[in-house]
Specification:
610 residues; Rossmann fold; 2 domains; 4-stranded antiparallel β-sheet; 9% strand; disordered C terminus
Length: 610
């Protein structure tokens, strides 16, 4: 629950986690067993066919060229071409299956991570940069896709190639084989050293990428650009971006230098090894009269080349897999984050068709973080029955918005309970609870999509007639149809193509379309002029019938007709009653009233803030 408990998690990068992480990586393949089987089958056939051409080449030289037999030369040459093409065909098919497998795993991981993050409490999102989340969802998972679609499957393929090639080499000449594999321990040692360093570099690249993504998201959004333009200090954000960008470049330089160094070392090894084999074969033939045929030497060097390329791949795979642990750990960190708000086993499903909407707070206490000395809400108790309008007033930061967040379980109470029709909200399913509760918040959020799509978020199956009816009730229909594309008009990022009042009216129409049993209006008319507000209040009066409405007050027209007015101060419910009763008590409510009005009139706003 604690806000302080969330933020960008950091992984323990020790190698002790590798075995646990490796088991989790292995489990990613389990849901795709048929595709894994196809990949392995085509891979093994391709590997098996790959050792045939060297033996056929041996026959080309020994039985064809050396024996001056054109028919035999032609036969074995054709067979070599056929075997090579067949091996290439199965290799291509294996590559296709491995890419499909990687994409399936990546999509499942991204969906699972997305759904898990959807269930995280608000504290996680208030403590984590959006760019950091985007990096883990896109860049980190994308890096994992490369590992599972090619690196791991190629590692298995290369291992098969190495084993079959070693067997074929021993069958041709065990002495030349011993000389060839004497360099293998050096290859493994290099892979281990380079892989551990590469892991640190990969972690640095991803973490710095997250920082750059976060800054881009913050400063190149509409709000960020507005900030820099209105402050006139583009140089400040540009300098900060330059610093972060150069830091990312430094990490990427390290990654590229590491890659070129690794391949440079392998070029040396793969170039020296054939030269050693030719010298050793020549020494045996000259000094000891060894009967090594030209075909054997040609076939062996072909196999030797076939051995070192997969060894290079295995070293590269070793580097990739070790360094990719950083990516897997970053994704697994998010998957392992605790969801404080979730469905209990056997949770009740609320039926919106029979739900009345009676809401009761019983001795509710809540704080955003256990580190806070004072609770944000303390011992709040009241009951709201179906059809009532409950107004919440009080000084800024008093806890009004926090109180309404407890109803749809955006937060969970620390003590006491919140019930709807006698059901503790913690004992009902989140999906059914959130279907029964609608909200229009002070900060209206619209998707970068059409007006129609923004409305359909609350009720995907709604017809065009239902959309128009909701917009008419919210006094926005006439404006929408006057736009060139009508309901197909794209509103821009966060709705910046619309005015504040237009955005709020669309948000109200979205709530009307949802038709919830419990309605929360958090400063819902704060950006509207008096005449437009009158129109919406008339529509809301109809909408409020038969449902419980909580309104964080901004206009007196909302307050004076409320069935209950809850005065919140310092997280406590200090006054409770109707408008006239509260004025007669000469308490906080009357003080707020007198501060804003010189005369009592129902036509002027009561300016309380949330």
């Amino acid at each position: 629950m604690a806000m302080m408990g969330y933020g960008a998690p950091t992984a323990d990068k020790s190698t002790k986690l590798d075995r646990v992480t490796l088991r989790r990586i292995g489990r990613l393949f389990l849901p795709h067993k048929p595709l894994v089987a196809k990949t392995l089958l085509t891979m093994f056939i391709g590997v098996g066919l790959g050792i045939v051409p060297p033996y056929l080449l041996k026959s080309v030289f020994d039985l064809g060229i050396a024996a001056r037999n054109l028919d035999t030369l032609t036969l074995y040459s054709v067979l070599t071409v056929v075997a090579t093409l067949a091996a290439a065909g199965f290799t291509l098919l294996y590559g296709y299956y491995s890419v499909v497998l990687g994409q399936e795993i990546m999509c499942n991981m991204r969906l699972r991570l997305y759904e898990h993050l959807q269930g995280m409490p608000l504290a996680f999102f208030t403590g984590t940069k959006t760019g950091e989340i985007q990096t883990r969802m896109i860049s980190d998972v994308g890096g994992i896709q490369q590992v599972v679609s090619s690196t791991l499957t190629d590692a298995v393929s290369n291992l098969g190639i190495v084993l079959t090639t070693l067997i074929a080499m021993v069958m041709m000449d065990w002495r030349l084989t011993l000389l060839s594999i004497s360099l293998v321990p050096l290859v493994g040692w290099m892979g281990s050293k380079v892989g551990n360093f590469a892991r640190k570099v990969r972690t640095g690249v991803q973490e710095q990428t997250a920082e750059v993504n976060s800054m881009i998201q913050e400063t190149l959004s509409v709000s960020g650009v507005m900030l820099t333009k209105t402050t006139g200090r583009r140089d400040v954000v540009s300098q900060k971006f330059d610093k972060e960008n150069r830091s990312l470049a430094d990490w990427q330089i390290k990654a590229q230098v590491l890659m070129y160094s690794m391949f440079g070392l392998f070029r040396i090894i793969t170039s020296l090894s054939p030269a050693l084999v030719y010298w050793f074969a020549g020494w045996m033939m000259i000094k000891h009269g060894d009967a090594l045929s030209v075909g054997t030497l040609v076939g062996f060097t072909f196999l030797q080349t076939r051995l070192f390329f997969p060894l290079t791949g295995l070293m590269n795979a070793q580097v990739e897999i070790i360094s990719s642990y950083a990516l897997f750990e970053r994704v697994f960190e998010y998957e392992d984050l605790k969801q404080d708000i979730f469905d209990k086993e056997g949770a009740t499903v609320l039926d919106p068709m029979v739900l009345k909407g009676d809401v009761e707070f019983k001795n509710v206490g809540f704080r955003y973080s256990p580190e806070l000395e004072s609770p944000n809400l303390e011992d709040v108790s009241f009951r709201a029955t179906s059809g009532q309008l409950i107004a919440l007033v009080g000084p800024s930061g008093a806890g009004k918005t926090t109180l309404t967040y407890l109803i749809p379980r955006l937060w969970d109470v620390e003590s006491g309970s919140v019930t709807i029709d006698g059901h503790d909200v913690r004992d009902v399913t989140l999906s059914s609870l959130q279907q029964c509760v609608g909200a229009v918040t002070q900060e209206t959020y619209l998707l970068h999509a059409s007006i129609r799509d923004n409305l359909l978020v609350s009720r995907p199956g709604a017809s065009d007639e239902e959309l128009a009816h909701a917009c008419k009730l919210a006094a926005i229909h006439e404006h929408v149809v006057s736009l060139p594309d009508g309901y197909g008009t794209v509103v821009g990022e966060r709705g910046y193509k619309l005015s504040g009042g237009e955005k709020q009216r669309l948000a109200i129409a979205r709530a009307i379309l949802k038709d919830p049993r419990v309605l929360i209006l958090d400063e819902a008319t704060s950006a509207l002029d008096t005449e437009t507000e009158r129109q919406i209040q008339a529509a809301l009066s109809t909408l409020m019938k038969g449902r419980t409405t909580f309104a964080i007050a901004h206009r007196l027209s909302t307050i004076v007709h409320a069935d209950q007015i809850l005065v919140i101060d310092g997280g406590k419910l200090v006054e409770h009653g109707k408008h006239d009763d509260l004025l007669a008590r000469s308490g906080i409510y009357k003080m707020l009233y007198d501060r804003q009005f010189s005369i009592e009139t129902a036509d002027k706003p009561l300016a309380t803030t949330s």
